[in-house]
């Protein structure tokens, strides 16, 4: 009888990529995906603990699975991702009904738990991995993180930085673009650290240059940038390689040097501004987004005002903002006091969201009436959707197909998305 798996994924694109990899491996054994736990033989929770809310969602999901198991559900449960540290004894005690705990990228144990082995002793994955259903794919290029920012649990859960060999990544992407994939996003917690641990020390610019040669590959993106690791060489490669999109996600986290110091981010605001200035000098059309944490330990009104000032000066295309919540196991949890009241955190969060909505809308409104290159990712409610080179979501009508790179005339913009018509179908302007 066909076995079915249900994968629930929380958190960053690295987890999305890990879930896709696990799914590709299970598919190879003839298992089928299912949207529901009702007919699943295996339920996988791919967890995130970067924020308190994400961890709560995983724990409450586990509670529901426990009830279903008690009621007679026959599925096995695997918990993977950042909830699983090097030691899982506590987790085993807390969740005894879970069949297996897997650390990020530690897939082999999952297959063993399921009794799945390769007759030929070969890889669990088809050579064509990544095997996504659409034209875009996430490709992890460096795992882990060495930075140890004081608030962050990632280095403890995902381990030290480990780059994948350039040739292995190139082969994987070559297979992917042989199929439906037209755009790859190169992933790392600090993606510009790519290669420092490899023989010959290739960097992200070398990797993007190598991938650029691949026929059928239309676009290359990369996530997430760590300001200190962004070198002029990498920024220049984005300018010089036509397939690399002018899109940067550069978490700043706070606009005040003392706060950055307490976070141990390893750069000053002046240095951060220099990187942004260089990008904008070389690529005025570049889109830049950032992440901010409000209410970090000891953050004063004056320090928060500096963050607001930075955001209004730089005018990011998008700001992902979160209120600080202490994560057990981190340096901040052990050594700093979480002393900003919840109400103050919420007020600061709303202040940024309000500023951001205005800035994003103004930036997007400038695109009204322009023509943008869009990679078509799908169709929903009678309209196509896809992203511009600057990673803005566009819904549009007209004659096209999934996987096409098409020119779209932008008719209307909001803070969150753009609407348009394929240029060939756009009405001529009446002058
Ligand atoms: S750079 Fe800092 S915030 Fe980012 S994953 Fe590493 S430790 Fe966490």
Overview of the structural elements:
This protein is α/β, with parallel strands linked by helices and 431 residues long. It folds into 3 domains: 4-113, Methylthiotransferase, N-terminal domain (Rossmann fold); 136-365, pyruvate-formate lyase- activating enzyme (Alpha-Beta Horseshoe), CATH 3.80.30; 371-425, Nucleic acid-binding proteins (OB fold (Dihydrolipoamide Acetyltransferase, E2P), Beta Barrel). Helices cover 34% and strands 22% of the residues. It contains 13 helices and 17 strands. It has a 5-stranded parallel β-sheet with strand order 2-1-3-4-5, with helices on both faces. Helix 1 (13-28) links the parallel strand 1 (4-9) and strand 2 (32-33). Helix 11 (301-314) packs parallel to helix 13 (342-365). The longest helix has 24 residues, at 342-365. It is globular. 40% of the residues are buried.
Q: How is the secondary structure organized here?
A:
Blueprint: E1 4-9, H1 13-28, E2 32-33, E3 42-47, H2 52-70, E4 76-81, H3 89-94, E5 100-102, H4 108-113, E6 136-143, H5 154-158, E7 162-163, H6 166-178, E8 183-188, H7 204-212, E9 219-223, H8 232-240, E10 247-249, H9 257-263, H10 269-282, E11 287-294, H11 301-314, E12 318-323, H12 331-335, H13 342-365, E13 371-380, E14 383-388, E15 393-397, E16 405-413, E17 418-422
Parallel strand pairs: 1-2, 1-3, 3-4, 4-5, 6-8, 8-9, 10-11, 11-12, 15-17
Antiparallel strand pairs: 6-7, 13-14, 13-16, 14-15, 16-17
Helix pairs in contact: 7-8, 8-10, 11-13
Iron/sulfur cluster binds near residues 148, 149, 154, 155 and 190.
